[in-house]
Amino acid sequence: MEGKKYYNTAAYLRLSKDDGDEGKAESNSITSQRDLLRDFIRQQDDLGLYDIYVDDGWSGANFDRPGYKRMMEDVKAGKVECVVVKDLSRLGRDYIEAGRLIQKTFPALGVRFIAVNDNYDSQTADFNEEALVLPVKNFINDSYCRDISSKVKSHQKIKREKGQFIGAFAVYGYVKDPENKNHLAIDKYAAGIVQSIFDWKLEGYSFEAIADRLNGMGILSPMEYKKSNGEKFSTGFHTGIRTKWSAVAVKRILTNETYTGTLVQGKTERVNYKVKRSVQKPETDWVKIPAAHEAVIAKDEFDIVQDLLKADCRAEAGSNKPSMYAGLLYCADCGEPMVRRITRYNGKTTVRYICSSHNKNGQCSRHSITEEQLDRIVLYGLKSRIDRIVEQSKVVASVRDLEMRYDDIVAFDNEIVGLKAEQEKYRKLRAALYADYKSNIISEADFKTFSNVYEEKYTELEQVIRRQTENIRAMFKSGLDAGIRLEQFKELLELDALNRTALVTFVEKILVYEDKRLQVVLRCQDFYEKTALLYDFIKNTGLDEKEAG
User: What is the pTM assigned to this prediction?
Assistant: First the structure.
């Protein structure tokens, strides 16, 4: 191009989205860049404006910009012979890429490059500018981009840890609070759908069955619902077809802890400030803030569903739901799940369960029990247990001065009493050991060895006692009857027959013995045991009679 008097010139404009003016179609900075470059080109005798290329809202670390790519296509086609920018940072903030572009790509294509505010023109630049000034400025621009990225990450981390929502879109079932965009508020319609999804899962429906049910009811999928509300929601998967509910979408909702009121953020992170791709972080590094917003699903209901998702609850043949005992029934001896078998003889159908270990390889006995026997025994046992729990919780809730008697109650706890007795045993052993050492019965080496063992046991028990004590204290602080759904208990007591929802709500597992004895393990078993402890304490001390008087 040497000796040429006239250049077809591209004016390139760029601004990061964080610097733009919200609510305007085009930022003022882009406008000022356009005016500056037009005036500059107009004043040059050898430059003529060919076209203006704009990337408004694009990072300088990213060279995959539409305006930049269009300009480079025109450069390579020979339509553009000179590129003009406001300053070097407008072309890009990546030190390596910007340097390669200015010092290799443009010269190889015979393209002149001008950065107005940096007083750089490749046609007149001397060796110092090419070898020293230009690399240093590009390095500074790259460092600025890295520094901005670090500050943004730090700012986002602080917001997450304060329980502020920083996502672009609220999770299905919530909306951004109109009065505070960093807080989630319940979307009543979508939250109702979420509650139905959890209810159906408790009833035993599979992911696919729930998705089919939602699609059959004409319920918009989360993506379509956002679009219907005017949200500019987009995804990398565009098919042009209306998105329906899928098993994956249902599972995503059923496993999202956000619905319990816990704000979960920071699941992914960018590889670095130059790479757009994000990677999944381990769950231990996620930021979880409890009680950050109103819950759609109760925590205990959410936990029940998570337990059900771990169990094998495949639907029965010809049905979209599993059997009532799926994921709950286990062999009491080998711990393996029980399998369901149906036999038909003389027009009579019998459903029975046998140990899966026996069914596979005969390594355990059958533990056979019919579904009819299960229904009768479990219903009677469950109703009697719950009847007792309800009665105990009513007595406990009626006494107001239990908080004042906290130390007496702790001393009444059988577990703590036993732990303290065992701790005292190790204290006495350590004292006797010292006496034996002084009497030269054992050596100094043996004394140190056994003394350390006893000390470790004593300290370990001390920690266990402290945790147990704190468990009881926590029960007071959370409310003596918190976690016991009395209304649901009453409904269960009125049932004439078991149903799947009642079972999974209150039963963690059922153990079947060879002699057909059953052990029903209730959920929140520890809480019920502590309720029984308080009940016994109240009855033994006559607090209920004093309260009534």
Answer: 0.52
